[in-house]
Specification:
Shape: globular
Order of helices and strands: EHEEHH
Radius of gyration: 15 Å
Number of strands: 3
Number of helices: 3
Helix content: 25-40%
Structural class: alpha+beta
Strand order of the largest sheet: 1-2-3
Distance between the termini: 49 Å
């Protein structure tokens, strides 16, 4: 009686597509800063980097797997 439908969500969201994972307070602080804001959503949590200082391990791993830094840019300063 009835088959069970299994839905899978993408494990990784990048850039602007991952913004909904951020709390409103974090997004507000990020918009107040100058410069770029990089984000990756993994399994429902968000990893962020403001582009300053050493690249975090998650950014380096993404780039090593063939990703582009531009993919992680959240474009929060553009409408």
């Amino acid at each position: 009686m009835g088959e069970q439908l299994e839905l899978t969500l993408p494990l990784k969201l990048t850039g602007r597509a991952a913004l909904f994972l951020l709390p409103a307070s974090t997004l507000k602080r990020a918009r107040a800063q100058r410069g770029q804001f990089f984000i990756m959503g993994v399994d429902g949590s968000a990893l962020t980097w403001n582009g300053r200082g050493k690249k975090p391990a998650w950014v380096a791993e993404y780039l090593n797997q063939g990703g582009q830094l531009a993919d992680l840019d959240a474009h929060i300063h553009q409408p």
